[in-house]
Design brief:
Helix content is 57%, strand content 8%. It is an alpha/beta fold and 636 residues long.
Amino acid sequence: MSKKRKWDDDYVRYWFTCSTELDGTQRPQCVLCNSIFSNADLRPSKLSDHFNRQHGGVGGHDLNSLKRMPARSDESETLKAFGVASHEDALLQASYQFAYLCAKEKNPHTIAEKLVKPCALEIAQIVLGPDAQKKLQQVPLSDDVIHSRIDEMSQDILQQVLEDIKASPLKVGIQLAETTDMDDCSQLMAFVRYIKEREIVEEFLFCEPLQLTMKGIDVFNLFRDFFLKHKIALEVCGSVCTDGASSMLGENSEFVACVKKEVPHIVITHCLLNPHELVTKTLPAKLRDALFTVVRVINFIKGRAPNHRLFQAFFEEIGIEYSVLLFHTERRWLSRGQILTHIFEMYEEINQFLHHQSSNLVDGFENKEFKIHLAYLADLFKHLNELSASMQRTGMNTVSAREKLSAFVRKFPFWLKRIEKRNFTNFPFLEEMIVSDKEAVCIAADITLHLQQLSSFFHGYFSVGDLDEASKWILDPFLFNLDFVDDGYLMKNDLAELRASGQILMEFETMKLEDFWCAQFTAFPNLAKTALEILMPFATTYLCELGFSSLLHFKTKSRSCFNMSDDIRVAISKTVPRFSDIIEQKLQLQQKSLYHIWNSSCTWSHHLINLTIIHSPPDPSTCTGETGLGEQRAWD
């Protein structure tokens, strides 16, 4: 391991300051162009070379000119003499804006100095001329500079979000989910929902790796430490919506137990976007075997490269639309519904391909009973896809999500009655396959059993149900029957007063439900607080799933060691960095560094002048007498 070099205050004469990494490594940073160099460059020869080659005495100011600078007390005039105020501001702004776009587009940091800046310089040279090219050349866009800019913007965004959380009039809602990246590293992602300026805001909170084990207590420690680090009490959380393994983030997991121990009254909800997994667990044996047959067929085609190539070539030859099959997966984003639909629609072609490859899956795949079961599964999962898609949006609250689930489950009795009468209208693929009463009787028994089990599981797993009658005023305070509210209910008078306002009625008809109640915080704080406590919790982990999709752009083979927590915050956060504040702070820091360099250089020059005076040889013409001759001999 190479020896680390140490910073010396004498290096300020080369217009450098010291930048210290988290591990204590000191790196020189030029205060004129913001370039950061490696620790190996922390030596006078390298620093002076950069100073002379890139800056040529700082626009005409060499160290000798520092003697003629204004006095120590006149700092502003000194900085003005360096020309920092306006020119440096433009360079910094351009640098920050590019770094922001780079993070938003999820591009690697090196794209600036390797592609964008060279292209921009060529364009400036051709279109605008050499003067514009020289100005553009000064914009700092190195890999380290872009990384530093993104870190600073991320911290500014995080600071804004934390300030909003502290200022929220209600406890915030948290959305928490876990995934594994390409390096098999478990990543925990969190979003937060809070009230800001009369509206509910959903914002990215953090994405941190679980370093060792992935138990519930590890998730809780990481979650709690984030709030402790930023000096926010965990009691600010009013609800947490989780998704993941039952042992880690399930409703009965260690994580939930730890959270409830710290915050006893917190509301814990589970993501409502998991009906596919629940349906699979309730499948009868015959239907489960049919699903597993589909999985084996897909793995046979996709799991072997030659089979996949032959499959694509075969479908291109016969002109079929779906030439590529998705891998079957437990996660909803590669939806079973889409896979089953594709398999059913391509049944004959896939059967031909399996015959051509002499696969042992042919017997099960071309079985008539299997195809009937496949048709039912394709229809059912298509219904589930439509249900999930209706809940995959921002702003989804638990009331709306449970209403959608409740409406879906209420269809089951109607489906069952139709199936008893051999009416398969709700299952079009299945209806297409049924050609005899015997087939209808066999499949009807399996479907009836499955839908009955599925209905009970939906009620138990998702707690499907509407609001109680006394709380339905939250959904519509104007049409709600006040007779359902007890006379002792303190907010009944507020409800009566609110209903009497025509202006508030107009607001209710034109605003979203959450925004309407946020707007009533001033006039009816108790009603607004009660309503928003029910509407605040997350119903799904949809935002986390979107974040995990962005994670795939950051964690690639070429960036596997990359710590992307700051980049992903800038990329997916809705909050815009306060560029003017960041640039102002940066300029102030640079101004202090420049003044420190000027001050140190003046002191160094002063000592050099004194040294010159002390050690200069005496003038022989003045060396008269015994004393003078002694001075001359002493110098010689």
